[in-house]
Design a protein that fits this description.
The chain is of the alpha/beta class. It folds into two domains: about 230 residues, 3-Layer(aba) Sandwich (Rossmann fold), CATH 3.40.50; about 140 residues, no CATH class. Helix content is about 30%, strand content about 15%. Strands 3-2-1-4-5-8-6 form a seven-stranded mixed sheet, with helices on both faces. α1 crosses α12. The radius of gyration is 22 Å and the shape is globular.
């Protein structure tokens, strides 16, 4: 199966779809440092079977998809700043809104399926009309906006076609859901909206894969059995944090079976040495230098090491103050190293990030958690390959 990915960034989604047995015909990305990251890892190669990846650096609006060849999957995460809680909230009025380019790629390539991910802010009530408009455009990608046609008129036309149910041209069965990466084994509470479409002529149904991990299972592991602390060779604290006391008391009356515990920062990083304070101390661990200057701010108090990380942040001008830090039980905190942040995003340890610390952290913070995307991609692959 062949795929095309746009807005590739540092390669989180590309790794995931590669692991799902897709062969990338093209990876489009405009950021130079992110392209350097991709090229470095392709040349190494950081993971098996990626020597043939074709990185196209530049504006996706200039990519001619008609020259790409037969494609089974289009995947990508258009820039999220227009819809991010931390952004300026302009939505589709923002010049950085690249969702129309994702739709153009689907229209031009007519893949068997597509996977688009974005921030959950896209599903906020203030963007409801635009979100529904995007879903309908992805359902009927060849029903394009006419010259000088107002957005409202195009939306109404799409709604009429959808209501009639007689469209004979390119059509996708589209489903979407906001997923928490922690529910799929990622050591991070990161909520992302995934929109998946399967070409209707294939006659196949698809649904999101079931969650594999659970918050209550972690609380049970820590405060009922205490197995979490034993695994890490730590003395069990006397009491759970105040906000979990009542929940833990209820869990003591149950028998936790089934889902695995959420993974924590400690779970993801405990086998790493302390971050190195000079370049000469690498010891085979890439991107693991200490970054000074971490401070807590109101509302930005770090991620407790024995809990999944808060969503990593990228920032337009570097990592925002107080973000991407790990908080220890004694109240001290420090920045996650790039390698630790990459583990929080479930990148393989062999994956290197190019550029200075702030740029590398931006690439990591903008990425799709690999293991979350992999579970979605493998589920899609199983449907369209059958």
């Amino acid at each position: 199966m062949h795929s095309v990915e746009i807005f590739t960034g540092a390669g989180g989604l590309a790794i995931a779809t590669h692991r799902a047995k897709f062969k990338h015909r093209l990876l489009a990305e405009w950021n130079h440092n992110a392209c350097d990251t991709l090229r470095t890892n392709i040349q190494t190669p950081a993971i098996r079977g990626i020597k043939s990846w074709n990185v196209v650096e530049g504006d996706v609006r200039e990519v001619d998809f008609s020259t790409v060849g037969e494609t089974d999957l289009v995947a990508g995460g258009p820039p999220c700043q227009p819809f991010s809680i931390g952004g300026n909230h302009k939505g589709n009025g923002d010049d950085r809104d690249m969702i129309p380019q994702f739709i153009r790629a689907v229209r031009g390539l007519a893949p068997k399926a597509f996977i688009m991910e974005n921030v959950r802010g896209l599903t906020r009530p203030s963007f409801e009309d635009y979100f529904n408009y995007c879903v309908l455009q992805m359902t009927y990608p060849t029903v394009t906006r006419k010259k000088d046609e107002p957005t409202e008129a195009h939306l109404a036309r799409l709604e009429d076609i959808h209501a009639a149910g007689r469209h004979r041209k390119l059509k996708y069965n589209v489903v979407w859901r906001v997923l928490d990466a922690a529910d799929y084994g990622v050591p991070q509470n990161r909520h992302r909206v995934f929109m998946v479409g399967v070409r209707s002529d294939l006659g196949r149904e698809w649904h999101f894969p079931a969650a594999t991990h659970d918050k209550d299972a972690l609380l049970f592991d820590q405060w009922v059995t205490g197995d979490y602390w034993k695994r890490h060779g730590l003395k069990r604290p006397d009491e759970p944090p105040n906000r979990w006391v009542k929940r833990v008391e209820k869990l003591k009356q149950t028998s936790m079976l089934g889902l695995k515990p959420w993974r924590t920062i400690r779970d993801a990083t405990s086998d790493l040495p302390a971050p190195f304070k000079d370049r000469a101390s690498g010891k085979g661990v890439f991107d693991h230098r200490f970054q000074p200057g971490a401070k807590a701010y109101p509302g930005h108090t770090g991620s407790p090491i024995d809990w999944p990380s808060k969503a990593l942040k990228a920032g337009d001008h570097g990592v925002p103050g107080g973000e991407n830090t790990v908080l220890y039980p004694d109240g001290s905190l420090r920045y996650l190293s790039v390698r630790e942040a990459a583990r929080v995003q479930t990148f393989p340890d062999s994956w290197r990030f190019e550029g200075p610390w702030s740029e590398a952290m931006r690439q990591v913070g903008n990425a799709v958690p690999v293991e979350l995307a992999q579970k979605v991609a493998q589920s899609v692959a199983s449907i369209i390959a059958s």
